[in-house]
Structures are given as C-alpha cells and as structure tokens.
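Researcher: Structure for this, please.
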Amino acid sequence: MRKKKIKKAKIEVWYDGACEPKNPGGTASYGVIIKSEGKVIFEESKIVGTGNGMSNNVAEYSGAISGMEWMIANGLKDHPILVRGDNKMSVEQMSGNWKVRTWDGLYVPYWRKAKELVKQFTHIEFRWISREQNGEADEISKQALRESGIKFKIQPE
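Model: Predicted structure, token format:
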C-alpha cells in the first residue's frame, strides 16, 4: 500500500516595523500577520523598545523574528513559507542577496537572531513587496504605538 502524501498548506507571513517620533532613538514597534490558505492564524502588534538601540530596521527584523518564533512554536517549520516585507534591506539580507555593511548597526543582533531562526525551516522564502502591498502589516505595526500614545512625526498615522 502506498502512503498518501499530505499536502502542507502554504503559510504567508507579512511583517512591518515603525520607529516614532524619531529614527533612530524613538519607540520601535512591529506588526506581523500570518495566514494559512488566506485566513489569519496569528496577528501581533508589539513595542520592541524605546530610546537608544531602537530603529525602524530593529522593528522590521523584530516583526520577522516574531513570525518565525510563532511558526516554530506552532509546528509549522516544515510548511512552505513565504515571508513578505516592504523593508528592502531586511528582505535582501535574509534572502542572502545583500551583506551586512556595518557590524555596529543597531539591527545587527536582530539580523543574527533571524538568520539562526531561518535554519530551522525546511522551505522559507523572503520576498520584497511595495509599501502599498503591505498596508495591513503597516497598520498593525503602528497599532502598538497608537495604544501607547506615541506621537507620529515620520510616518502618517
């Protein structure tokens, strides 16, 4: 008897980050949405931190990390995963197309953590999308800032 091959659902991850009211040095937050077969299975908006050490790139990587950690914790490491973000640097670095230029960048520890997490997945792909295509994650990334009373000066609220 042949075993039936069970098709695993494709997982889509959408992430975005923000740092307000200044970048770097403001309050960094991220938004992440995970979908399976078009349905939201996880959504999170969270502040990473405030002040020194915070930037939009820290926020972006934190969103990607949150999504990967959730998928690992929920047994989705062997599913085909497509991660989408509008931060060209994080997507290109995670895809291996760009190198880290400066090892003292605020985001570097987050990049390292993300690179370690990626190793746990069978098939994960990062793809850059335009800001217009990432509206849902953008909105969620700003949600935690709004709830904390952070004033927006860089991005439209």
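Researcher: Any notable elements?
Model: The radius of gyration is 16 Å. Helices lie at 56-73, 88-95, 108-118, 135-147.
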